[in-house]
Amino acid sequence: MEVLNILKGGEGAELRAKVRRNAELFRKEMSAAGFTLVPANTRSSGDAGDARLAGEMAAKLLAEGVYVIGFSYPVVPKARRASAPRCPPRTARNK
User: Rounded to whole angstroms, how far apart are CA atoms 55 and 92?
Assistant: First the structure.
């Protein structure tokens, strides 16, 4: 498959470096804006703190060409949010 050839070559290395730089910049700016971010390499997970706000933010960012998904109940249980950094035993159990 051509995509694997691209990823293995110099172009793939350049693309990976670009994704890392963009993720670092995004995380820096989101942190500066006061968002709590989950530690990660290239993906960026944050906590908007409110399901309605998360949905509104996701819609506005998508309109700007930034693919964002706002997770809330029933994907996340009511009154309980969980992520790998917050509950490693549960994460390990799910592997």
Answer: 29
